[in-house]
Design goal:
The protein is α+β, with helices and mostly antiparallel strands. It has a single domain, classed as Beta Polymerase, domain 2 (2-Layer Sandwich). Helices cover 48% and strands 15% of the residues. The chain has 8 helices and 7 strands, in the order αβαβαβαββαββααα. The protein has a 5-stranded mixed sheet, sandwiched between helices. Strand 6 and strand 7 form a beta hairpin. It is globular.
């Protein structure tokens, strides 16, 4: 089976930048999961970028979707914006966007689904060590999710990498607070 993971960070950065140019006109967002570690220099491939957006209404999503299409993206799932919103996003399922005519990378877009997601968006940060202007969930949040919730080998390695990068500034109490929130809500 051919390798689907994108290993060129420049390709990912350009893809994300193009997507966020549209997204930031419509809502607040955070990038979470694997790309956070990749943006901090961890050498690993990925086929998707995970992004959580604040909860928006169907009309706002419809305009966002239309603007993404105008900007050269397409949604992998079929349907009208209303269907995508009601059948996927409101049901706490992600939808995926790719550049037209490609399969990878893809943007896995999710609506904030609970207090924990709202907390992440409220505390979003631009991380200067990434050389990007994107908003991310905090290093503490990423570490907590990878260690407490995801727990796959690649996630534990991502958490280890972030712990090394931010060893001087990590707030362990915040990590434990978020882990407790994860246990209560997930």
């Amino acid at each position: 089976m051919p390798e689907r993971a994108v290993k060129d960070r420049n390709v990912l950065d350009e893809f994300i930048s193009d997507f966020i140019k549209v997204l930031k006109k419509h809502c607040k967002y955070i990038i979470v999961s694997g790309y956070v570690a990749i943006a901090h220099g961890r050498a690993r491939g990925t086929e998707d970028v995970d992004i959580i957006i604040e909860k928006i209404k169907v009309g706002e999503f419809t305009q966002l979707h239309k603007d993404l299409i105008k900007s050269g993206f397409e949604c992998i799932q079929p349907g009208t914006p209303k269907t995508l919103y009601e059948d996927y996003l409101l049901e706490k399922t992600s939808i995926r966007y790719v550049k037209m005519g490609t399969l990878v990378p893809d943007m896995e877009l999710k609506l904030a689904k609970d207090k924990l997601d709202k907390y992440q968006i409220k505390n979003r940060v631009k991380l200067p060590l990434t050389d990007t202007t994107f908003y991310f969930s905090t290093p503490e949040t990423n570490i907590a999710f990878k260690e407490e919730y995801l727990k796959a080998d690649k996630d534990l390695e991502d958490a280890k990498h972030l712990r090394m990068i931010y060893q001087e500034t990590l707030n362990e109490k915040e990590i434990e607070k978020i882990k407790k929130m994860i246990k209560e809500r997930r």
